Amino acid sequence: MEAQNIKEDAKDILNHTGDYLETLYKLNVVRATKKASDIASGVVNSVLLFFFSLCILLFLSIAAAWWLGVVFNSPALGFLSVAGFYLLLVIILISLRKNVISPFIKNSLIRKVYEEKNKVIR
To answer: Which of 68, 110, 120, 121 could be disulfide-bonded to 78 (CB atoms 3.0-4.6 Å)?
Structure first.
């Protein structure tokens, strides 16, 4: 009698283990799907934001160059001064990339990864 109870308990444990593993698999699929959808939506948002920002920057730069050309009475000097401003920005960004920009990006990514791990999936 007791041997049969042990066999039934073993079968129940095996059934529960199978159910547990199946549920764990489904949970991991849901987590992976959520992560993939978060990444995809982030990429799409970033690309759209970059594109529109680039368009705005382009038109503002043309307007600034045109205005400076009127101020300097030379359109070429206006466009040259805007190009010089962008060259100065590039030089500043290159000089700050190792000490300021790179650590900022690394810290932001690390913070984002750990923020995602601490959230509860709803």
So the answer is: 68
